[in-house]
Amino acid sequence: MSYPPPVYRGDGGEVRAWFRHVDTPAELVRPDGGAAAFLATGAQTEGRFGLYRWDMSAEPGGAQPHFHRTFSESFFVLAGSVELTDGTGWRPAEPGEFAYVPEGGIHGFRNVSGEPASLLILFAPGAPREAYFEGLLAMAEGRWEPTHDELNAFLEEHDNIYV
Fold it and tell me: Which CATH class name applies to 28-162?
Protein backbone atom coordinates (compact mmCIF):
# COMPACT_ATOMS: atom_id res chain seq x y z
CA MET A 1 0.00 0.00 0.00
CA SER A 2 1.33 3.41 -0.91
CA TYR A 3 0.08 6.95 -1.13
CA PRO A 4 -1.91 7.76 -4.28
CA PRO A 5 -0.40 10.09 -6.87
CA PRO A 6 -0.56 13.79 -6.05
CA VAL A 7 -3.74 15.63 -6.96
CA TYR A 8 -2.65 19.05 -5.75
CA ARG A 9 0.61 20.18 -7.33
CA GLY A 10 0.97 23.66 -5.85
CA ASP A 11 3.69 24.68 -3.40
CA GLY A 12 1.92 26.79 -0.79
CA GLY A 13 -1.50 25.27 -0.26
CA GLU A 14 -4.79 27.07 -0.79
CA VAL A 15 -7.68 28.26 1.34
CA ARG A 16 -10.24 25.69 0.16
CA ALA A 17 -11.57 23.96 3.27
CA TRP A 18 -15.20 24.41 4.28
CA PHE A 19 -16.95 23.98 7.58
CA ARG A 20 -20.40 22.79 8.58
CA HIS A 21 -21.48 24.13 11.95
CA VAL A 22 -23.11 21.78 14.45
CA ASP A 23 -26.27 23.95 14.41
CA THR A 24 -26.83 23.43 10.67
CA PRO A 25 -30.25 21.78 10.35
CA ALA A 26 -30.56 18.36 8.74
CA GLU A 27 -31.50 18.44 5.07
CA LEU A 28 -34.21 15.79 5.48
CA VAL A 29 -36.51 15.21 8.45
CA ARG A 30 -38.69 12.10 8.46
CA PRO A 31 -42.28 12.00 9.79
CA ASP A 32 -41.11 9.85 12.74
CA GLY A 33 -38.57 12.52 13.78
CA GLY A 34 -35.52 10.83 12.27
CA ALA A 35 -33.26 12.94 10.07
CA ALA A 36 -30.51 12.83 7.46
CA ALA A 37 -27.79 15.46 7.45
CA PHE A 38 -25.73 15.73 4.27
CA LEU A 39 -22.36 16.44 5.89
CA ALA A 40 -20.29 16.11 2.71
CA THR A 41 -21.93 15.07 -0.54
CA GLY A 42 -20.17 13.42 -3.44
CA ALA A 43 -20.65 16.65 -5.41
CA GLN A 44 -18.95 18.66 -2.64
CA THR A 45 -15.98 16.24 -2.44
CA GLU A 46 -15.56 15.96 -6.21
CA GLY A 47 -16.74 12.35 -6.06
CA ARG A 48 -14.18 11.20 -3.50
CA PHE A 49 -16.73 10.27 -0.80
CA GLY A 50 -20.09 11.14 0.70
CA LEU A 51 -20.60 11.50 4.45
CA TYR A 52 -24.05 11.56 6.06
CA ARG A 53 -25.40 11.57 9.58
CA TRP A 54 -28.42 9.29 9.88
CA ASP A 55 -30.44 10.04 13.03
CA MET A 56 -33.09 7.43 13.80
CA SER A 57 -36.08 8.00 16.04
CA ALA A 58 -37.11 5.50 18.70
CA GLU A 59 -39.49 3.95 16.15
CA PRO A 60 -38.21 0.68 14.65
CA GLY A 61 -36.57 1.22 11.27
CA GLY A 62 -33.50 1.03 9.11
CA ALA A 63 -32.26 -0.62 5.94
CA GLN A 64 -32.93 -4.29 5.26
CA PRO A 65 -30.10 -6.47 3.86
CA HIS A 66 -28.85 -5.23 0.50
CA PHE A 67 -25.65 -4.55 -1.42
CA HIS A 68 -24.18 -2.02 -3.84
CA ARG A 69 -22.20 -2.69 -6.99
CA THR A 70 -20.53 0.70 -7.39
CA PHE A 71 -19.51 1.96 -3.95
CA SER A 72 -18.48 0.87 -0.49
CA GLU A 73 -20.35 1.88 2.64
CA SER A 74 -19.07 2.37 6.18
CA PHE A 75 -20.97 2.86 9.42
CA PHE A 76 -19.85 4.49 12.66
CA VAL A 77 -22.29 4.42 15.58
CA LEU A 78 -22.48 7.84 17.24
CA ALA A 79 -25.26 7.33 19.77
CA GLY A 80 -27.77 4.75 20.88
CA SER A 81 -27.81 1.10 19.99
CA VAL A 82 -28.31 -0.23 16.47
CA GLU A 83 -28.04 -3.61 14.87
CA LEU A 84 -25.85 -4.21 11.83
CA THR A 85 -25.80 -7.21 9.53
CA ASP A 86 -23.05 -8.60 7.33
CA GLY A 87 -25.50 -10.97 5.68
CA THR A 88 -24.95 -13.79 8.19
CA GLY A 89 -26.97 -12.35 11.07
CA TRP A 90 -27.70 -9.20 13.02
CA ARG A 91 -25.30 -8.01 15.71
CA PRO A 92 -25.63 -5.18 18.23
CA ALA A 93 -23.48 -2.10 17.69
CA GLU A 94 -22.91 0.55 20.33
CA PRO A 95 -21.38 4.06 20.14
CA GLY A 96 -17.83 3.93 18.82
CA GLU A 97 -18.30 0.73 16.83
CA PHE A 98 -17.52 0.71 13.11
CA ALA A 99 -18.31 -1.47 10.09
CA TYR A 100 -16.86 -1.33 6.57
CA VAL A 101 -18.72 -2.94 3.66
CA PRO A 102 -16.92 -3.25 0.29
CA GLU A 103 -18.76 -3.26 -3.02
CA GLY A 104 -20.98 -6.35 -3.24
CA GLY A 105 -20.99 -6.86 0.53
CA ILE A 106 -24.39 -7.64 2.02
CA HIS A 107 -25.26 -5.26 4.84
CA GLY A 108 -28.09 -3.51 6.62
CA PHE A 109 -28.80 -1.54 9.77
CA ARG A 110 -31.77 -1.14 12.03
CA ASN A 111 -32.82 0.47 15.26
CA VAL A 112 -35.00 -1.87 17.30
CA SER A 113 -33.90 -0.55 20.71
CA GLY A 114 -36.93 1.68 21.35
CA GLU A 115 -34.53 4.63 21.83
CA PRO A 116 -33.12 7.16 19.33
CA ALA A 117 -29.84 6.24 17.63
CA SER A 118 -27.41 7.94 15.27
CA LEU A 119 -24.90 6.76 12.65
CA LEU A 120 -22.31 8.30 10.41
CA ILE A 121 -22.54 6.69 6.97
CA LEU A 122 -19.65 7.04 4.52
CA PHE A 123 -19.97 6.16 0.83
CA ALA A 124 -16.84 5.86 -1.32
CA PRO A 125 -16.62 6.98 -3.98
CA GLY A 126 -19.14 9.75 -3.46
CA ALA A 127 -22.29 8.45 -5.13
CA PRO A 128 -25.21 10.93 -5.38
CA ARG A 129 -27.14 9.47 -2.43
CA GLU A 130 -29.18 12.62 -1.77
CA ALA A 131 -31.80 11.72 -4.40
CA TYR A 132 -32.11 8.25 -2.90
CA PHE A 133 -32.67 9.67 0.59
CA GLU A 134 -35.16 12.20 -0.80
CA GLY A 135 -37.08 9.36 -2.48
CA LEU A 136 -37.21 7.42 0.79
CA LEU A 137 -38.59 10.52 2.52
CA ALA A 138 -41.22 11.03 -0.19
CA MET A 139 -42.39 7.44 0.37
CA ALA A 140 -42.38 7.82 4.18
CA GLU A 141 -44.47 10.98 3.90
CA GLY A 142 -46.89 9.40 1.43
CA ARG A 143 -46.04 11.92 -1.30
CA TRP A 144 -44.86 9.09 -3.57
CA GLU A 145 -46.46 5.66 -3.68
CA PRO A 146 -44.48 3.86 -6.36
CA THR A 147 -45.76 0.83 -8.17
CA HIS A 148 -43.70 -2.35 -7.87
CA ASP A 149 -41.98 -1.55 -11.18
CA GLU A 150 -41.35 2.08 -10.19
CA LEU A 151 -39.84 0.98 -6.88
CA ASN A 152 -37.57 -1.54 -8.62
CA ALA A 153 -36.44 1.13 -11.10
CA PHE A 154 -35.77 3.57 -8.24
CA LEU A 155 -33.69 0.99 -6.36
CA GLU A 156 -31.77 0.04 -9.51
CA GLU A 157 -31.09 3.68 -10.36
CA HIS A 158 -29.59 4.16 -6.89
CA ASP A 159 -27.62 0.88 -6.83
CA ASN A 160 -29.60 -0.70 -3.99
CA ILE A 161 -29.98 -4.42 -4.54
CA TYR A 162 -32.05 -6.02 -1.79
CA VAL A 163 -31.46 -9.69 -0.94
Answer: mainly beta
Q: Which sequence spans correspond to the domains of the chain? A: 28-162
Distance between CA atoms of 31 and 53, rounded to whole angstroms? Answer: 17
Give the type of residue at 21.
Answer: H
pTM above 0.90, yes or no: yes
CA distances from 25 to 50, 51, 60, 62, 158 (A): 18, 15, 23, 21, 25
pLDDT the model gives residue 51? 98
CA distances from 154 to 37, 47, 83, 131 (A): 21, 21, 25, 10
CA distance 99 to 86: 9
Tens digits of per-residue pLDDT, 141-162?
Answer: 999 999 999 999 999 999 999 9
